[in-house]
Amino acid sequence: MTKRKAPLAVALMHYPTVDRQKRVVATNITNFDIHDIARACRVYGIDRYYLIHPLQDQLMFVERVLDHWRVGQGAKFNPMRRTALTDVHTAKNLEAAVTEWGFPNARIVATAARPMEAQKAYTFKEFRTTIETEDDPYVLVFGTGFGLTTEFVGSCYGILEPISGASKDNYRHLSVRSAVSICLDRLLGSW
């Protein structure tokens, strides 16, 4: 694995995101995203995994799931799941997340399935080198629904290049769980 120097968190944003008609929406948090992304973050040594949502009932849902697996019956049933969920946190917005993490000036790097404009564009290789050599904290942000809003991405410190596969029609609509795993492996894997 990459010898990472920079503190690194992952955030899964449920707002501001867009739907298929490009309307700004808040998407629902799914149980799969809690568990599967937490497991990927644990495997690749991510410091924190944040689920970001402005609605309290969605954050309460996550906390109930986490309680079940951290201290409830789930902790006894599957201790490895408890371990994977150790560094999962919730926040109403990204500002609250980075403040709670202790790095309010963390550099925010967005992800997107298609090329978008941001202050700085990173290839996977460039961002891998950055987190290996710099001390600055970074948050790698993933969107749900049909992605993060153009305005949000434009406000970020940078953007990571989109994942490009080998489909003949340039199909790029991965589940966010798959996208997180692919990105973390490209950035922190032992290849």
Describe this structure in words.
The protein has 191 residues and is of the alpha/beta class. It has one domain (8-188): Alpha/beta knot. The protein contains eight helices and nine strands. It has helices spanning 31-43, 56-70, 73-77, 79-84, 94-101, 124-133, 150-155, 176-188; strands spanning 8-13, 17-18, 24-25, 48-52, 88-91, 107-110, 121-122, 138-143, 158-160. It has a seven-stranded parallel beta sheet, sandwiched between helices. A two-stranded antiparallel sheet has the order 2-3. A hairpin with a 5-residue loop joins strand 2 (17-18) and strand 3 (24-25). Helix 1 (31-43) packs parallel to helix 8. The N and C termini lie close together (8 Å). The model has no long low-confidence stretch (mean pLDDT 94).
Key traits:
alpha/beta; Alpha/beta knot; seven-stranded parallel β-sheet; two-stranded antiparallel sheet; 9 strands
